[in-house]
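hey so i finally got around to running both of the ones u sent me last week. sorry it took forever, my laptop kept dying halfway thru and i had to restart like 3 times lol. anyway pasting them below in the order u listed, first the sequence line then the structure token line for each. didnt double check formatting much so if smth looks off just lmk and ill redo it

first one:
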Amino acid sequence: MPDKQHLLATLRAEYDRWQALLSSLDEEQLTTRVLPAGLSVKDQIGHLHAWQQISIARLEAVVDEREPTMPAWLGDLAPDAHENLERINAWIHVHYRDQAWADVHAAWQRGFQRFLTLSAAIPESDLFDANRYVWLGGYAPADVLQGSYEHHDEHYEPLPGLLRNLGWTETRKG
């Protein structure tokens, strides 16, 4: 099992990997809907940011020793209930699709940095304690970190190949 520093380093590396990819594309490439399901890279970042807000709510609750306060946009939908995923993802798409790239990107960056800050603030003994936070349903806060990494990784992995197939280079903008 990884330790806290390993988890934080993995998350920072994931952030850096995304930043490198995003900075290699121009705004037209970032906002053109050419990905599966008619999505753009910007849509993917909006999606990641929305789910990131749920993870941040959980980490804030851990740090503050309280029950989580989920983002208001969730309404009464439980984010972990499989039957809600389609509705939640549809709301996310509608909410972010017309927002400017710069706004979506900045929100995701701020959220990722907040996520890292909160993660670093959790004592390692609490981070791996699956019994301490009953509202996590048998999961440890470290599982929230791991889940965020896996979610980002899941959305990143197909992108370089898809972008290459479009003839879009992955070299940095000048």
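and the second one:
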Amino acid sequence: ECLIFNFNFYQMKTIILLSVTLLMAACGTSSSQERMNVTKFQKEIASHPDGVVLDVRTPEEVAKGHLKGAVNIDYKSSAFETSLASLDKSKTYYVYCAAGVRSDKAAAVMKEKGFKNVYTLEGGIQAWTAAGQEVVKN
């Protein structure tokens, strides 16, 4: 009897789960969805004027202040995914929200929809303002 292939059900299940987890982790590291701290986010926006700053907060939140030149598409809106369809998937997107949760979720949806370069602001606009960065109001 060959002991190498003598796995019980639970050992095989563990091996499969570990393999899938490693594969997902490897795929995730090659993604161009990345969280950036305030300093890096600001530098990237400044050095890529063709990039799109995307605010995924509600219109009420945006009215209180937003990053200069930001486009607003509310992640909580039922029209979020429809609105994404009108965007150029080949452009670079700098996505932010209030604290970073919605922007991470929005970026994941964008990656699923075929957007190539999506970056999120770690800590959201709260981190941005805490770092003394400028916001504008309409």
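quick thing i noticed on the 2nd:
The chain has a mean pLDDT of 86.
anyway thats it, ttyl
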